[in-house]
Design goal:
By secondary structure, the chain is mainly β. The chain has two domains: 1-40, no CATH class; 51-219, no CATH class. It has two helices and 16 strands. Strands 6-7-8-9 form a four-stranded antiparallel sheet, with no helix packed on it. A hairpin with a 5-residue loop joins strand 6 and strand 7. It is globular and about 55 Å long.
Length: 231
């Protein structure tokens, strides 16, 4: 993340018009939102994506629904595909996909091979309604929403290959409407925490869960561990 702009304070920004986005006649819009992050570049999949077959086995390239960064080992950008319960209907081939894209540790830019940015690992998700994902130290962490009910934060079993289906090892309750996940280590370099934000109006929270506690099987079923009282 490099820049965040406040359209309410900007002399050439507008937050009243919810129908426009981008620069229009010298004025900047964000569908009525106050804070925006400008797009500075874009990458396109070489494999076509059939929007009519989204979240099906023959959809082509995945939809990019959420992102994260993994800094354990070689830096990677994490991408993930949201597929709703009603679409997946229990079919693991329709539950969505995640991938790891290598980054240049010095510049933060995509690590290219002959002009192409190739994922070096990709997996099918074990369950649908996944709203955010991040990998760290050979495990994946997944946030799952459940409408107006509490969501879940899952920890997978250790990864043993660069492809396949992720397997859930432990599950923890989350707040209502959990979204993307962001990992931050502690100042001493230890595991640190996973941050997430919730999406429902009037119930929006920004909170963190300690990774070491999430990884303990005896804390399975708790909200960030037995001493938390978030609801």
């Amino acid at each position: 993340m490099r820049y965040i702009f406040d359209l309410k304070k900007a002399s050439n920004g507008d937050t009243s018009d919810k129908n426009q986005i981008g620069r229009q006649s010298g004025i900047y819009y964000g569908h009525g939102y106050r804070y925006v992050m400008p797009q500075v570049a874009a990458w396109t999949n070489v494999i076509e994506r059939d929007l009519t077959k989204k979240c099906t086995a023959d959809a082509g390239s995945p939809t990019f629904s959420f992102v994260a960064v993994d800094r354990s080992g070689i830096d990677h950008l994490i991408s993930g595909e949201f597929c709703a319960d009603k679409t997946a209907a229990g079919d693991i081939n329709k539950s969505g996909r995640v991938a790891r894209w290598p980054l240049d540790g010095d510049t933060g830019q995509p690590k290219l091979s002959n002009g192409l940015w190739k994922a070096d690992a990709a997996y099918r998700l074990p369950i649908s309604n996944i709203q955010g994902a991040v990998s760290y130290n050979n495990k994946w962490y997944l946030s799952r929403s459940q409408g107006s009910s509490n969501g879940f934060l899952y920890v997978t079993k250790p990864i043993t290959s660069s492809t396949g289906i992720l397997e859930i090892e432990t599950g923890h309750f989350a707040a209502v409407g959990p979204e993307d996940l962001s990992h931050w280590t502690k100042s001493d370099g230890s595991a640190g925490s996973l941050w997430t934000v919730t999406e429902h109006a009037g119930k929006r929270l920004l909170y963190a869960c300690d990774i070491d506690r999430l990884n303990h099987r005896e804390e399975n079923g708790h909200i960030c561990g037995p001493r938390s009282n978030l609801s």
